[in-house]
Amino acid sequence: xxxxxxxxxxxxxxxxxxxxxxxxxxxxxxxxxxxxxxxxxxxxxxxxxxxxxxxxxxxxxxxxxxxxxxxxxxxxxxxxxxxxxxxxxxxxxxxxxxxxxxxxxxxxxxxxxxxxxxxxxxxxxxxxxxxxxx
Length: 134
What we know:
Layout: E1 2-14, E2 28-40, H1 52-66, E3 69-70, H2 84-102, E4 110-118, E5 121-128
Parallel strand pairs: 1-3
Antiparallel strand pairs: 1-2, 2-4, 4-5
């Protein structure tokens, strides 16, 4: 399996309204270094997994909609407890949707997202893609 990873970052605010999260129940900020890895079994006709510029563009579109926002008020996230894990899934699905719209025959089999909240703590989510796309 071949892979291509691109990276971006986002600064957000959110709260985690459950006593389980202790002080993180209150509104607080986080900075996520965000990596998305696209995987496919073979390289395409150009000898790549995916164009790096296109991959970066898909990630930046998603991060741009989240950056400097209070996630508690983001229309796509209403009712979601925006843990790092849940946000990794959201980013993976949003990136895969953009990929599918732009390149329906992309050949990508997995989109894996890692959100690094600090150098020693991160969470990830892997989205499997069908033969027809994400």
